[in-house]
Amino acid sequence: MKRHNKLMIAASLSAAAAHSLAAKAPLADMESFHQSLLTIDTHVDIPSNYATLLVDPAKKQLHQVDLVKMQQGGLDAAFFIVFVAQQPRNNWNYEQTKAKARHLFKAIHRMVDNNSDKIALARTAKDVRDIHKAGKKVALIGIENGYAIGKDLSLLEDYFKLGARYMTLTHYGHNDLGDSSNPSRQLQDQANEHGGLSNLGKAAISEMNRLGMMVDVSHTAKSTMMQAVALSRAPVIASHSGVKSVNPHARNLDDEQLRAIRRNGGVAQIVAVDEFLLNQPDEMWTTIGKIRREVGMEGYKDIPFLPAELYLQYHQRIEQEVRSKWPAVNIQDYVDHIDHAVKIAGIEHIGIASDFGGGGGVKGWNAADESQNVTTELLRRGYSKRDIAKLWGENTLRVMEEAEKVAAQTQHLLLTR
Ligand SMILES: [Zn+2]
């Protein structure tokens, strides 16, 4: 009920605001302002068959991000993600995981190679700006889950050479680098395995600093995160997180963490995952779980793999059986998290992430072609154009540049020693 009222108020507010905004800034102005920005989404998951005939990013298809939707929504750049799920830690799984990671690197390279007239891979912040200026979309690469290196620190340099410019230290479940915000019951994790970072995790951060790979603290336990912030010689990012003060979810950052990111010079990119943004009743999740089981899918990460028929069937049933009772989390709910994060960490330290393909998407920003709506909502709330440029990309590029500087200094020191 409360939720319903909130939505109604938000709807009438936004209608009124949209009206007054429309009076002040015609749609064409809004569009040209959005087009003038360098927009970066710091977290986009892809299936491993991305950039094959089955999932061709050059054509508009079911996946929330493709080159057509990026063009339509004025989304200039995205970190495409090499994601590996946490598994029991043994040599067999380390090898399998390494292969899976390489498979995803290949998918991203394939997208770029097959569409070189439309998109290019950026290895530096300067690359991002140059590619953007040349009128192409920008692909960046992030690794999600330090489990991708197992216990082998030398893989960091291999992955860096393949283009990875950040690595999320953990995912769901602890790994060899540190503790996760969500210990895995299935993997029989203790609440606290390493008390934050392991020694290997500390060494990984030092190696990432040497290479110029950004340290990503999303998905990590608070202990891991605070230690990483203290240890890293370059500013860190939280590539896709919400804020706990607005919704106390385990995946969100509390105010102390936001202040730590501010002091560190880093950026927390606020994520559009409904589950993190707003607390929803258990009954809704039970219903969604039932539909997923009946449709034959397990977890959000599987959505891109679903055959089109099942995908449509799933969405139809969600609309009929879920959205009729529990309205979708919307873009206002999303920007509420940005507002709070900016209040605590400052405008220089917040960014934007969708987690499309990995469970992200809210009403109003449910695919890359709706990215302009984020700009509209930020303007509506009184953010200046300069501030919006910082949120959409400048802050992330600054941290990337800092990471590059730290790497250059380290390599200089090593050479002159
Ligand atoms: Zn994630």
From TrEMBL:
- Per its UniProt record, what PROSITE patterns does this chain match? RENAL_DIPEPTIDASE_2
Signal keyword on record: yes
Pfam hit, one: Peptidase_M19
Q: Where is the composition biased (Polar residues)?
A: 178-190
Q: Name one GO biological process term.
A: proteolysis
- Record's keyword terms, sorted: Signal
Recorded protein name is: Peptidase M19
Q: Which organism is it from?
A: Bowmanella pacifica
